[in-house]
Amino acid sequence: MELHNSDASQRIFIRNMMCSCCMRLVKEDLTRLGITVLDVKLGEATIIYDSEKISRRQIDEALQELGMGLIQNKDEILVEQIKQTIIELVHYMNNVDSIVRKSEYLVEKMGKSYQTLSKLFSKVEPITLEKYIILQKIERVKELAMEDKISLSEIAWMMDYSSPHHLSNQFKIITGISLSDFKKDPASHKKPINKLY
């Protein structure tokens, strides 16, 4: 949808916008293009621009330089919102209290059944929703292990594993190395949370 009125605001949806740093970068780059940025949230921005001077393609190209991009498709927008919700839950809430496994938080936040969300996620992405959650949990485990402030038992509890042994097994299956080997050289095994698959 092209705007021909520079006074009308528009909400755009952005893929791979994973943290507050991303929000700052998006605001800076869009402003540099001559776009008025009214609001920026994870995965979206509300903007005002003159489509006769700035095209959506220019906006998309600016976002792609940041490793992001515009999302046009309704299903992709919803999947991006699912990802944002999982990242919020796994990376920014400390006591997940079994929500990750049961997915109650995701269902409540998205307003759709887990089965519907899971089916849509698999339709848009090359992995399942369950696998995506596991990959995010493992990356969070890596962060917590690198900080070395809490025990493996506490990490297992926070990430909703039944035991430290269960966590260690899944860590090795996903990463190919043990947690103790990871701790010896963590930097070489860390991945950005938007590039896990």
Order of helices and strands: EHEEHEHHHHHHHH
Q: Can you tell me the CATH class of the largest domain? A: Mainly Alpha
CATH topology of the largest domain: Arc Repressor Mutant, subunit A
Spatial extent as radius of gyration: 19 Å
Average pLDDT for all residues: 88
Unreliable segments of 5+ consecutive residues: 1-5
Q: Helix count, per DSSP?
A: 10
**Gross morphology:** elongated
CATH architecture descriptor name of the largest domain: Orthogonal Bundle
Could you characterize the architecture of this molecule?
- With 197 residues, the chain is an alpha+beta fold.
- The protein has 2 domains: 63 residues, Alpha-Beta Plaits (2-Layer Sandwich); 116 residues, Homeodomain-like (Arc Repressor Mutant, subunit A, Orthogonal Bundle), CATH 1.10.10.60.
- The chain is built from 10 helices and 4 strands; from the N terminus they run E-H-E-E-H-E-H-H-H-H-H-H-H-H.
- The longest helix has 19 residues.
- The chain is elongated and about 60 Å long.
- The protein starts with 8 loop residues before the first strand and ends in a 13-residue tail after the last helix.
- The N terminus is likely disordered.
Brief account:
By secondary structure, this protein is of the alpha+beta class. It has helices at 20-32, 56-65, 74-92, 99-102, 104-110, 114-124, 129-147, 152-158, 164-175, 179-184, and strands at residues 9-15, 36-41, 44-48, 69-71. The chain has two domains: 9-71, Alpha-Beta Plaits (2-Layer Sandwich), CATH 3.30.70; 74-189, Homeodomain-like (Arc Repressor Mutant, subunit A, Orthogonal Bundle), CATH 1.10.10.
